[in-house]
């Protein structure tokens, strides 16, 4: 990740919770027999900071992209008996981001695993994102952008 990113209102701990939840989900819903790979990116565009957390896991069917952010909507277990979700995590993430004047969506064009994208208004406040000890070998197929977004209804 780059150095400091300008973020909108809200405590840094809330952003930590959002990113941690998305990383935990990427690990929880990894594909059997495949080492999980997670990439986090951020870019400032049009007065907001857009983040993406992408993985190479099981993925989420496009028709479920909206439902996963609803309270008590549980993910379904895979055929190998992996656990389903509690129906709280992603709904809580969505509520946190909404309270910070942000939004979250799943990139419908991401084909391997899932790419969660979220955006927060940019401001003069900065939040130093921790640097990992090692950088993931995964690279984005779409450098310079943070996920496709469906048009608002």
Summary keywords:
153 residues, alpha+beta, four-stranded antiparallel beta sheet, 2 helices, 6 strands, 18% helix, globular, disordered N terminus
What would you say about this model in short?
With 153 residues, the chain is an alpha+beta fold.
What fraction, in percent, of the residue positions are helical? 10-25%
How many strands appear in the DSSP assignment?
A: 6
* Class by SSE composition: alpha+beta
Largest sheet: spatial strand order: 2-3-5-4
Oligomer description: single chain
Distance between the termini: 33 Å
Give the percentage of residues in beta strands: 15-25%
Q: What can be said about the biggest beta sheet? A: 4 strands, antiparallel
Q: Low-confidence runs (pLDDT<50, min 5 residues)?
A: 1-5, 135-144
What are the secondary-structure elements, in order, as H or E?
A: EHEEHEEE
